[in-house]
Amino acid sequence: MEHPNTTVGTEFPTYPRELSWLAFNGRVLQEAADERNPPIERLRFLGIYSNNMDEFFRVRVADVKRRILLKKYQSSEQEDAEHLMQDIQQQVLELGARFNAIYLDIQLELRKHNIELIDNFKLTELQSSWVRSYFRSEVIKHISPMILSGDEVSLSKALEDNTTYLMVEMTGSGKPEYAIVQVPTNELSRFIELPLHLNTRKKNGHYRRQILLLDDVIVHCIADLFSGFFEFDAIQAYSLKLTRDAEYNISDTLDQSLIDKMSKGIRQRLKSEPVRLVYDAAMPEQMLKVLSKQLGTSSVDSLIPGSRYRNFKDFIGFPNIGHQSLEFPTMPPLNSPEFEQYATSFDAIRAGDILLYYPYHNFGYFTEWVRQASFDPKVTHIKMTMYRVAKHSRVIHSLLDAVRNGKKVTVVVELKARFDEENNINWARKMTEAGIQVVFGLTTLKIHSKLCLISRMEKGKLVQYGHIGTGNFNEKTARIYTDMSLFTCHQEITGEIGQVFEFIEYSYRPYQFNHLIVSPTWSRSRLTALIQREIDFAVSGRKAEIFLKVNNLVDQQIVELLYRASQAGVKIRIIVRGMCSLMPGIAGKSQNIKIISVLDRFLEHARVYVFHNGGETDVYISSADWMTRNIDQRVEVGVPIYDIRLKQQVLDTLDIQWRDNVKARIIDARQSNAYVKRGNKRSIRSQQQIYDYFARMQGRQQVDSQEE
Fold first, then answer.
1. Domain 517-707 has CATH 3.30.870.10
2. What's residue 384's pLDDT?
3. Is 388 annotated as a binding residue?
4. Which of 245, 347, 383, 427 has its CA 20 to 30 A from that of 271?
């Protein structure tokens, strides 16, 4: 049975991207349920699921809600949006029920490993005394309750987005009093390990390691917090979390700097419309009524009952207080023989293009390249784009060093990188104060490309070294996201990188790109031509193939072109991590298209496009997904891989992923997330296999260099 919101009656059916996004998060939940994963990692996958769901409501659900409330579209489209909202709410509830069951299962598994998550109802008398002491000494100083009596407090404006709160009810002889308490997770760890000597002793004489959530510490001591200020016979507290619309409006007035506008936008987000209220299902009906009235929730707001704990995203950082086997085994980043055999990064890149695949390779080669550039007397200018960087970025510190060494440094800062705006604003101010030329690019386009261009005087000539990647210059995410980076001194390619930087500053000038695929102006026509070329090969009876790896595939024009390619006989394979509106395997429309999704310990983030091209295979890596925003509304850059050896490496890794039969799911027309069947084939877990592939390559290259 097809989903009611799929457009199967049209020439080219599509799957709603919001529901496809939920299917993706369902795959995250599958990882939490997978008993082959260590229990601590399973718990962390629940945190990832929760964090993803927060963003889903802040962005996707908020957009659907605006379609309904603002009535921007024709009545038929508004009706479609209302049906879509109903489908979203139904699937969210189903996923929530699975989430709760998985959480209970993981708790039982942790108990087998001598780790127990306990609540305040299970505390012994000695533990209770310790918790009250901890509350008085460490917690209470971070708490200032909001009292809900009268009209002084506007709860809809006061509650911060995606923050854990407790709603408190105090009852006695008079009418009930209500208050809101924020759980201070920004100040204290969410996970409190009880002193070992106070914990439950197992039969073998060992103590069980027990963890109490900060939420339960506060609930256990809630009477102490309000005693002396209110008279009550009974007091109870239940958790809640509000999620707001992540969109924000920036004034177009000319007397504000862009940074000031963005700062205002972030403040506005704190007061934007609520799109989801998640609350403890045990919350009494009267408390929920008071809460809903205070927040002014509408009929299209999502009121979602759940377990007693909110903000599970904190579980991403759940500590392992047990044996190391409770986590994934370490996979130390591999060395790059290409970089290692030369004295400087510039010597290595000049000897030939270098491709790194994070986190399998060490991201330190990029930071070291920028560090060397910061003091190299031959370097004259460093240019870089900045979308998401670490809070303590070594890369930016090297750029600051470069300015102090007299280098000219230009950094294109994307202030509209969603949820990283504040970090980028702070870095932009610091860099500007240090003397770096900070460019904010185009107000209507996000700068999402991952570019670095270093100019160097060599024997009286200016030589440029470039980097084009699929991921951000972020030391933290480079350890958990899979991304590819190309280092090159191919002067035509580096010249075009320079043109991209010029386009960002001077978009009105004419530019021509013969090598790079550049959004927004040049990307759609180039991608269309590449797909059409495969169609032409198929029509002429020649072999025609397309192999894609993207995070999201939802651009309507591209999806329709892929359908046409399938109808023409082009064999299409796609590895997609997240949203996919294309429905494969439909007779007469997409029978030549197969799609899988790989989800494992690392977040698949690299984008790769492969076109058979009559046997002269073209391979590109890119920062762009195949979404309308990436093709038409952002500055994105894709680069061809010309080096035959590197091209083969990319093809090999794609082939390994395609053959995954452990962590790969089939994306079918209903997005049911069925695992690829292993059958009698040997087990292939692609992320481990890719790591082993590069480890073997590293070993062979080291042997070859020693023999030379």
1. yes
2. 94
3. yes
4. 427
Q: Which two tokens stand for residue 641?
A: 């891989």
Binding site annotation covers 267? no
CATH class of 122-251+260-318: alpha beta
Model confidence band, residue 310 (pLDDT cutoffs 50, 70, 90) = confident
Give the pLDDT mean for 218-224: 96
| Fold for the domain defined by 9-113 | Methane Monooxygenase Hydroxylase; Chain G, domain 1 (1.20.58)
> Model-level pTM?
0.89
pLDDT at 2 over 70: no
Is 276 part of any known ligand binding site? no
Cα distances (angstroms) measured from residue 410 to each of 349, 391, 434: 22, 19, 12
- What percent of the chain is predicted at pLDDT more than 70? 88
DSSP 8-state secondary structure symbol assigned to residue 601 = S
Q: What is the residue extent of each domain of the chain? A: 9-113, 122-251+260-318, 339-505, 517-707
DSSP state for residue 177 in the 8-state scheme: E
What average pLDDT does the structure give for the chain? 89
Mean pLDDT along residues 70-99: 80
551 known ligand binder: no
**Predicted local confidence at residue 198, as pLDDT:** 85
Q: Of 220, 361, 448, 612, which residue is the catalytic one?
A: 448
The answer to the question of whether 645 is labelled as a binding residue is: no
Task: Write down the pLDDT at residue 304.
Answer: 79
DSSP character at residue 139: I
Cα–Cα distance list, 300 to 73, 259, 611 (Å):
17, 34, 45
Give the pair of three-digit tokens for residue 646: 């590197």
Contact 244, 273 (CB under 8 A): yes
- Listed in sequence order, the residues at least 6 apart from 150 whose beta carbon sits closer than 8 Å to its beta carbon are none
Q: Residue 40: is it exposed, middle or buried by C-beta count within 10 angstroms (0-12/13-18/19+)?
A: buried
Domains 122-251+260-318 and 339-505 belong to one CATH topology: no
Active site residue 448: yes
